[in-house]
Amino acid sequence: MQLSGKATVLGDDIDTDVIYPGRYLAVLDPVSQSTHLFESLPGDLRKRVGEGGVIVAGWNFGCGSSREHAVTSMLGAGVRLVVARSFSRIYFRNAINNGLAVVTCPQLVDLVADGDGVEVDLAAGLARCPRGECEFAPLAAPLLAIVSAGGLWASVAANRDTVT
Amino acid sequence: MSLTLAEKIMSRLAGRTVRADDFIEVGPDWTFSLDDGIGLVDRYFNLYNVQSLAAPEKIAVFYDHFAPADTPQHAHVQRLGRKLCERFGIKQLYDVGEGISHQVSVERGIVRPGQMVTNTDSHTLTVGAVGAVGCGIGVAEMAFLWTYGRLWFMVPPSIRMELRGQLAPGVAAKDLVLSILQRVSARGAQYASVEYHGAALASLGIADRMTLCNMGVEMGAKFATVPGDEITRRHYTALGIDVGDMPQPDPGATYALRHEFDLSSVEPMVSAPHKVDNVHTVRAIGRIAVNQAFLGTCTNGRFEDMAAAAAILKGRRVAAGVRMVVTPASRAVYLRALNEGVLSTLIEAGCTVTTPGCGACAGIHQGVLAAEEVCISSSSRNFLGRMGNREASVYLGSPATVAASAVTGFITDPREFSAA
C-alpha cells in the first residue's frame, strides 16, 4: 500500500479534544464530523490537513478519549496518513480499524518540514521526503491487512451481504 | 512460566499461554458502550446489515455522557440506542440517571476480579481497582466485537508500581496519581499494563484504587490494576458475591519497568493547563483565581469524594463569584450522599448538584466554561478546550482541593482548612 501527500506538521501530545471536541459526538457521518476537526486550533488547519492528506506529529499522538471521531473526522476531511513519533493506543486502534494508515517513525518526523511532500510504502516500511529516506517497522501483517482493506468491517464484510 | 496479571487474564481468554507483545483474537468478558457511541454502533449495524449479536449477555449500555439529553441530537442517539437494545436483546441498559459506566459496573459487582472489560471509553482502566483489567476501544471495533464476538488485541508489557508509606491527612489518592504522572509523564506507561503493588495498598480503599487506576490512561497505559486482595474481597462480600480465587500475578513475572513511590512524601498536587502531566504542588502554584469548582466524574465522583469536600465545606460558603458544581458518579453515590447528609452540607454551602453521570468533564453540558474562565476540577483531563471552550483553563486537583478552592476563590491547599 503506497501513500503520498503534503505534510502538515504538528507537535507532541496532540489530544483527542483538540482533534475533535466532545460536544459533537452525536455527529455520525465522517464528512459532517470533518467540519469540527481541529476546531479549537486557530487558522485553517482543517483545510490544510485535508488538502495535504498527511499529518506528521510528535510523541503520543491522539492521547485522551476513545472517540473514534478523532480518526473518522480526519478521513472525512481527506487525511489518509498520519506519521508520528508515537501514537496513543486507542487512537492507533481506531486508525487501523477505520482504515487510516499510521506510521510510527521518529526519524521521518525529524526529516519532514511543514509542507513537504511525503511518500510511504506501508508494507515495505519505506518512507521518503525531500530531505531523505528512512525505514520503519511495518505494521504486523494482520493489521496491515485491515488498513489495506479500508478498516475492520471492510476487511470481513467485503464478501457477504448479511453478517451473522 | 511466570505471568503478569494482564498476561494471566489474556491467557485465559486466549485459551493458551500468551506473553507481552503477543497478538491475539479474543472475546473479552464484558463489552460496554455508552450514549456517546451507541448512535455510531447503530450506524455500523445498518451499514453492514447486522441481524444478530454474538453474545448480548456480555453487553451493557450506559447513558452517562449527556444524560438527560441536552440537545435534540443527543436525544436522538439515545433513542436509537434504546431501540437497538430492544431489537438485539441487550438486557442491561443503564439509562438516564444511573451513572457512569465504570462506577456502576464496580459498585454493583458487574465486573469481577480477573475479568477483562472493553468499553468505548478511555477511562475503562478504572475497573482495575477490583483486580480486573479494562481498556477503552473505538466504536467501529466495538460494533464488530458485538457482532462477531472476537477482536484483535495485543498483550501489553507490564510496569510494576510499588507503593509504600501512607498518605498524610489532607492528601488524597488523586494527589498520589498526579505525583505519579509528574514522575512518569503522559507517555510514561504507553501501551503498558500498570500493576500496583505494595504495603501501602492496605490503606487505599476501592474508591482510592479507582482514582489510581482511572488516571492510568493519562500515562498512556492500556490497563491499570490492583490485584485482588482482602479489600477487594470485602467489597464483593458486602454485595453478597463470593468472588472465589482472585487471579494474581506470578512471583517472577517479567516487568518492563519498575517504579517505587513513597506515599508519605506526597502533598496536594494540581495539574495545570493544558497537559495532564504539567503537575505542581498546590503550595507552589501561586494565586490562581477560579470561576468554577467541579466535583465529580469517574476519577473523583464517589461518596468518599463528596464526603471529603463536605468536610471542608461544612459551615462554610462557596466564595462569591465562584460556582461549585457537584455531579455524583452514580445514583447509588447520590442516594448515599443524600442519606448521610453530605448533600445537605454541600447544598447549604452553595453547591449545585446535577444528575449522576460524566457531567461537565467532557465539555458537553452541566458546566461548560466561558472564555477566560478558570475551573478547578476533580476530573482527569485539562486539555485545551476540554470543558467546552478553547479560551478557558482547567486545573485538576483532589476533591478536597476543589472544595478548599471553592471556599477561598483561589486554588488552595486543603490542609489550610484541616487544622480549623
Task: Characterise this structure.
- The complex is a heterodimer of chains A (164) and B (420).
- Chain A is globular.
- Chain A has helices at residues 16-19, 30-33, 45-52, 69-77, 89-98, 106-111, 141-149, 152-157, and strands spanning 2-9, 53-57, 81-84, 101-104, 117-121, 126-129, 132-135.
- Chain A starts with a strand and ends in a 7-residue tail after the last helix.
- Chain A has 164 residues and is of the alpha/beta class.
- A seven-stranded mixed β-sheet of chain A has the order 4-3-2-1-5-6-7.
- Chain A has a single domain (2-157), classed as Aconitase, domain 4 (Alpha-Beta Barrel), CATH 3.20.19.
- The model of chain A is unreliable at 159-164 (pLDDT under 50).
- Chain B is of the alpha/beta class.
- Chain B folds into three domains: 23-153, Aconitase, domain 3; 156-266, Aconitase, Domain 2 (3-Layer(aba) Sandwich); 269-418, Aconitase, domain 3 (2-Layer Sandwich).
- Helices cover 31% and strands 18% of the residues of chain B.
- In chain B, strand 8 (158-164), helix 6 and strand 9 form a beta-alpha-beta unit.
- The longest helix of chain B has 17 residues, at 72-88.
- The mean pLDDT of chain B is 97.
- Chains A and B meet through helix 1, helix 5 and helix 8 of A and helix 2, helix 3 and helix 5 of B.
Helix and strand pattern of chain A: EHHHEHEHEHEEEHH
Which CATH architecture of chain A is right? Alpha-Beta Barrel
Let me know the average pLDDT of chain B.
97
**CATH class category name of the largest domain in chain B:** Alpha Beta
Largest sheet of chain A: 7 strands, mixed
What is the CA-atom radius of gyration of chain A, in angstroms? 15 Å
Indicate the topology.
The complex is a heterodimer of chains A (164) and B (420).
Chain A: E1 2-9, H1 16-19, H2 30-33, H3 45-52, E2 53-57, H4 69-77, E3 81-84, H5 89-98, E4 101-104, H6 106-111, E5 117-121, E6 126-129, E7 132-135, H7 141-149, H8 152-157
Parallel strand pairs in A: 1-2, 2-3, 3-4
Antiparallel strand pairs in A: 1-5, 5-6, 6-7
Helix pairs in contact in A: 3-4, 5-7
Chain B: H1 5-14, E1 23-26, E2 30-34, H2 35-47, E3 59-62, H3 72-88, E4 92-94, H4 101-107, E5 116-119, E6 133-136, H5 139-148, E7 151-154, E8 158-164, H6 173-184, E9 193-197, H7 206-214, E10 223-225, H8 230-238, E11 257-262, E12 269-271, E13 279-281, E14 292-296, H9 297-300, H10 303-313, E15 323-327, H11 331-339, H12 342-348, E16 352-353, E17 374-377, E18 393-396, H13 399-408, H14 415-418
Parallel strand pairs in B: 2-3, 2-5, 3-4, 5-6, 8-9, 8-11, 9-10, 14-15, 14-17, 15-16, 17-18
Antiparallel strand pairs in B: 1-7, 12-13
